[in-house]
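[step 3/7] inverse_fold.run input=structure_tokens len=506
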């Protein structure tokens, strides 16, 4: 491949667009992944900037307005926004800054929710809100006289930026900017009624070229997939899974069309927060050479929840949103789920932390009141999450699908062996125990069904009682794995370079 420049020697200008970024705005894992990747790329020497909305709850401390209002041309009128600039909080002062630009517009982003409720989706207001956010990226670059080599749009809210890049903004100086689209969870696709297209500054020909329509509805993820030079998702296995009808949420055909341009890159985790050797949120620290602190954490959890303080009973932890994706029906649905069998038939302790659908919250409360060896905490509690990771022997993650998943990587670092469905990022980060060679870092089962989950848990318990030396070796092996963002950032660099080459050939 001949390219006019050797990009590998050049720092790149990278502009990311996202609806969420910690610590400014968070709903889910997207908010952790985007700034962590941005910071790591900055550490590698790139000039990385990030555009997000400023919501009502976004902290303005330390943010400075950039001079003058910014006009965003949309279909019918221009939206006048203010822009605040803040540095992304960094681990140490030697890390180069990532500039975060917050787009402020009272009517669009000043309400209390980051995403509209279903009624809002039907009115198409979110398409307008994030359509404006996406266009503001271009206007901001003009204002700053700073033009990116790569525009990296995350999930459905930022996908319109890639549509503009290939239509209304496909002119100098953006005609050399490469577009990269990242799918963090294909279950959320930015679907709106067709009338909502009236909000976007595009003519019918441009809308059609961008592929915005999908079976009589707008679908921004579909358009993002079609307009980007390259598409990424958050694990290699999920890149494979979403091309199958079972996990493609209706877009598997479009993804297969772009199979050669689709890359799965496993997310990293924030090891400054999640490392048992210096975690201030747990009662005792430990590492892969000395696991005594882990036993202390187990005792502390057993005492706190009045479970029998026994070192030789397997403690299984779970921290999860209580939604179908996470396999909660297969665990707990009356007459179907496997939890009652596991709790009846085995001597084990189970600790679940999670909130979500009320029917699941109620069912887990009911089970915990019946079984003395099960505890359920219906809350969101970061500190307790750290304690559960540190104290448990096993961590259960029976997801139906899992784009990447973070908890299994936290578990591995804390010497807590995951018991999980072999899907998406779980398959990529856990090595199934091999009974003959003794290798592996966890226990995988093929599908999320009650019997498969039960079998997975039983395999883990059998190893716990039958072969403690093997279990100990598995724990230490898991603790030594490197899940830092450095590896992921290097792969994104390669994707950016390839996207630039593709853009230059157009
Ligand atoms: P998802 O993003 O699909 O919910 P992940 O495993 O990728 O699943 O990330 C979930 C994150 O949210 C993890 O860091 C997990 O510890 C945290 N989490 C989920 N529920 C709770 C809770 N009730 N309390 C504390 N942390 C939680």
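[step 3/7] decode complete -> sequence:
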């Amino acid at each position: 491949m001949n390219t006019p420049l050797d990009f590998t020697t050049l720092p790149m200008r990278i502009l990311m667009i996202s609806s969420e970024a910690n610590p400014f705005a968070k709903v889910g894992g997207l908010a952790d992944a985007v700034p962590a990747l941005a910071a790591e790329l900055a550490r590698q020497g790139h000039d990385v900037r990030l555009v997000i909305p400023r919501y009502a709850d976004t902290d303005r401390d330390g943010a400075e307005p950039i001079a003058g209002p910014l006009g965003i041309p949309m279909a019918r009128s221009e939206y006048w926004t203010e822009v605040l600039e803040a540095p992304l909080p960094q681990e140490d002062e030697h890390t180069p800054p990532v500039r975060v630009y917050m787009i402020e517009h009272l009517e669009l982003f000043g309400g209390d929710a980051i995403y509209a409720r279903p009624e809002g989706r039907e009115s198409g207001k979110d398409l307008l809100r994030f359509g404006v956010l996406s266009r503001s990226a271009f206007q901001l670059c003009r204002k700053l006289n700073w033009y990116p080599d790569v525009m990296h749009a995350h999930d459905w809210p930022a996908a319109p930026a890639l549509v503009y890049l290939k239509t209304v903004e496909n002119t100098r100086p953006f005609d050399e900017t490469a577009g990269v689209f990242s799918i963090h969870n294909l279950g959320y696709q930015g679907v709106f009624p067709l009338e909502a297209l009236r909000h976007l500054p595009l003519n019918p020909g441009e809308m059609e070229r961008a592929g915005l329509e999908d079976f009589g509805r707008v679908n921004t993820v579909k358009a993002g997939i079609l307009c980007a030079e390259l598409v990424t998702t958050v694990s290699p296995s999920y890149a494979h899974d979403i091309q199958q009808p079972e996990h493609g949420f209706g877009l598997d055909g479009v993804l297969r069309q772009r199979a050669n341009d689709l890359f799965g890159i496993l997310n990293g985790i924030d090891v400054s927060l999640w490392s048992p050797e210096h975690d201030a949120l747990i009662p005792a620290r430990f590492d892969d050479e000395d696991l005594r602190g882990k036993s202390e954490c187990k005792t502390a959890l057993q005492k706190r929840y009045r479970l029998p303080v026994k070192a030789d009973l397997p403690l299984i932890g779970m921290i999860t949103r209580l939604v179908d994706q996470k396999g909660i029906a297969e665990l707990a649905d009356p007459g179907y789920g496997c939890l009652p069998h596991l709790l009846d038939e085995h001597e084990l302790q189970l600790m679940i932390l999670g909130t979500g659908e009320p029917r699941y919250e109620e069912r887990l409360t009911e089970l915990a009141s019946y079984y003395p060896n099960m505890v359920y905490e219906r809350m969101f509690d970061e500190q307790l999450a750290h304690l559960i990771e540190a104290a448990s022997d096993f961590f259960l993650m029976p997801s139906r699908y899992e784009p990447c998943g973070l908890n299994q990587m936290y578990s591995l670092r804390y010497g807590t062996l995951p018991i999980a469905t072999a899907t998406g990022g779980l398959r990529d980060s856990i090595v199934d125990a091999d009974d003959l060679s003794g290798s592996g870092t966890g226990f995988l089962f093929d599908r999320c069904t009650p019997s498969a989950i039960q079998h997975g848990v039983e395999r883990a318990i059998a190893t716990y009682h039958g072969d403690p030396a093997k279990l100990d070796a598995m724990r230490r092996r898991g603790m030594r794995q490197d899940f830092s963002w450095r590896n992921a950032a290097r792969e994104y660099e390669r994707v950016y370079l390839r996207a630039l080459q593709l853009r230059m050939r157009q």
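[step 4/7] annotate
The longest helix spans residues 485-505.
Residues 28-29, 319-321, 353-355, 380-382, 385, 405-407 surround adenosine-5'-diphosphate (CB under 6 Å).
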